[in-house]
Amino acid sequence: MKLYRQTSRIILIAVLLYSGCITVVKKDTEILWDTYGVPHIFAGDYNQLFYAFGWAQMRNHGNLMLRLFGQARGQAAEYFGESYLVSDQWVHTHNIPQRAAEWLDLQQPEFKQYFQSFTAGINDYAAQFPDEIDYDSKAILPIKPTDLLAHYQRVIIYHFVTNPRDTQFNPTSIRADRGSNTWAVGPSKSASGNAMLIINPHLPWGDMFTWFEVQLNCETLNIYGATLVGSPFIGIGFNDYLGWAHTNNVHDGQDMYKLVLADGGYKWGENSKPFATRNVKLKVKGSDGVLSEKELIIKESVHGPIVREDKNYAYALRVVGKDQPFIFEQYLDMALATNFDEFQKAASRLQNPFFTTMYADRDGHIMHLFGGRTPVRPAGDWDWLGTVPGDTPQTLWQDTHTYAELPKVIDAKSGWLQNANDPPWTTTLPRELDRRDYPDYMSRNFMHFRAQRSARMAYEDDKITFHELLAYKMDTRMELADRLVDDLVEAAESSDDKFLHEAAAVLKKWDRCADNESRGAVLFKEWVDAIGFHIDNPDLFHSPWLEEDPMNTPIGIADISAGLAALHTAGKKVIDNHGKLDIAWGAVFRIIRDDVDLPANGGPGDPYGLFRVTGYRPIENNRYAAVGGDSFQAIIEFGDPLQAMASIGYGNASQERSPHRTDQAKFYSQKKLRPIWRSRSEIESNLTLTEQF
Predict the structure, then answer these.
(1) Domains of the chain and CATH, by start
(2) What is the Cα–Cα distance from 617 to 615, expressed in whole angstroms?
(3) I need a labelling partner for 350 at 20 to 30 A (CA). Which of 213, 250, 502, 582 fits?
(4) Which Gene3D superfamilies match (predicted)?
(5) What CA–CA distance (Å, rounded) separates 623 from 612?
(6) pLDDT (tens digit, 9 = 90+) per residue, 19-75?
């Protein structure tokens, strides 16, 4: 459907309440909404800026944001029913609401006011447009500054650093759609001599992982990027001088302690200690709308809250990040930085406990920082990736590593840096970090196939252009196929099985990609899944992964007879499900949202070695619908003028009936990004709505 451009003006008089004083916001703040639902905010001061930022997020994501704040309070079951009770229990187990209040008290006065401005924008939008707010969500209003800090803790500390479903994070198993890719290309590797950056997080397409694309302009601030919905700061982005990206860090910021129950408490050295306890009464809305009450009793040891208990043992979770309350200050300083020294000074505060950071700037500097907070763990033969004895003070850590102690590469000699959720040791090749210079627990030692594909593309191109950077970002070649298909095809062609000859012909003709029209990718995926190939299953390969040859191993099929049998089974399954062996990838894997149904490309990063990550769920007729992977995507060249392109695969809005829920899906299907509009003239040439405050 053709979207006709309309430009309208809404004059809004907003009243903000600051410390008991009423302040009328002047009408010198504008939100210019472009044709893809991206708000470009121009404000005279920071309070006006953050007011408009909260307002803009409500316009595009109001109901989602309110639900997330309700969950962050630990009151979602009260608002939405018993299905949210487990979420509330997780929030209160980790004392998030109380800590959010404590964090707010620690903020500088001006930042408290910024939080107040942001929430005032949220609340005023809801008051101005009540029909856009779901009935159940209205009970969550008004939003308060503590909600912002509770939401941040719930998402970053308690769903990234740790997780209610996975409290023993295994960094060797990066198989889901939650991860990221990023590159920084320095002047010696860039065809133009300008540094370049890829921003490419992989997250589920919804819920707390939803990105919001935005531009913020105020005084010396001009930052473009994206934030997770509900956050008052830009999480990943760039300004005129520099930019940064994040990937999920392969670090271990949590530990599970196994406590021996004794004397009503737990053993501690030669004695025992009682548990500290807290009681929380949770309200639960029934199907009839009537509230009931459930009591949650929370036990805590010196390590942290008890998250599991049986007859003889209790398990306590200790997590980093609980004493880093100044995340907003750090990211505002990062956004205001104009050179590497200023950015590094801001980033070195390590207020974000989790992410790897990739950086590039117009002066030609590039950096990979293995960021986040890593505990300084006691010496000893302890299983830090499993459970640790909790009956001795010898295993209890208190501090985290400083910025100076973390792995980082600045201005790599190779001219390039990459991260695809692999450990920092392979950020560039030849290596510039030696893992032996760091504690063993700092990060594991592996390089999965997606990271190998990432490094190979950068390594093999002497000079990378901006257009090549886009092509690499969209690359769907399966690294695993290059290790296995030749041997498989040769063996299949030599067999007496005519069906295997047909399968071999399909694989031989296949482009080894997962593009919309790639024919053979579906068959290869079925075969790989049937055998279980993965980087941490070395016995399935003829040659295992070797640290001294990280980009070319593992390789070959260990048991070719088993491989042929699996190919026969996989081929029959493909025919049964899809009618032919050479079904196109995009006929099976789709982008489906609202009335959009388009062919998809890309797939799970591993074990297939796909740089273009798309996660899927099964739907009817043996097809699959995209539900995650590449989300906010951007490439930037820091030249004069700066070049930048971006897209959000699912669109920049989640509100029902918004045209921006699906208007960027076509770019995902076509492996394209759209130009970024940053100057006022560009924005006004692509304008659909202007709001003035």
Answers:
(1) 26-161 (1.10.439.10), 179-251+324-473 (3.60.20.10), 254-319 (2.30.120.10), 479-601 (1.10.1400.10)
(2) 7
(3) 213
(4) 1.10.1400.10, 2.30.120.10, Glutamine Phosphoribosylpyrophosphate, subunit 1, domain 1, Penicillin Amidohydrolase, domain 1
(5) 19
(6) 333 344 457 899 999 999 999 999 999 999 999 999 999 999 999 999 999 999 999
Asked if omega into 607 is within 30° of 0 (cis), the reply is: yes
3-state secondary structure of 22: strand
Task: Say if pTM beats, i.e. exceeds, 0.85.
Answer: yes
For residue 657, which amino acid is it?
A: R
Q: Which residues of 381-398 are buried (b: 16+ CB within 10 A; e: fewer)?
A: ebebbebbebbeeebbbe
Q: What amino acid is encoded at 458 in this protein?
A: A
* DSSP secondary structure, 130-194, as one string: GGGS-TGGGGGPSP-HHHHHHHHIIIIIIIIIS-TT-SS--TT---SS-EEEEEEE-TTTBTTS-
Residue 22 pLDDT: 36
Distance between CA atoms of residues 646 and 635, nearest Å: 7
Give pLDDT tens digits for 510-520: 999 999 999 99
560-578 vs 479-494: helix axis angle to the nearest 10?
Answer: 100
> Which residues in the chain come in under a pLDDT of 50?
1-25, 168-177
Report the alpha-carbon distance of residue 533 to residue 557 in Å, rounded. 9
8 A C-beta contact, residue 311 and residue 301: no
Structure tokens at 265: 């408490």
As a whole number of angstroms, the distance between CA 9 and CA 309 comes to: 58
Three-state DSSP at 68 gives: helix
> Minimal CA–CA distance to 203: which of 628, 624, 591?
628
Q: How many CB atoms lie within 10 A of CB 494?
A: 12
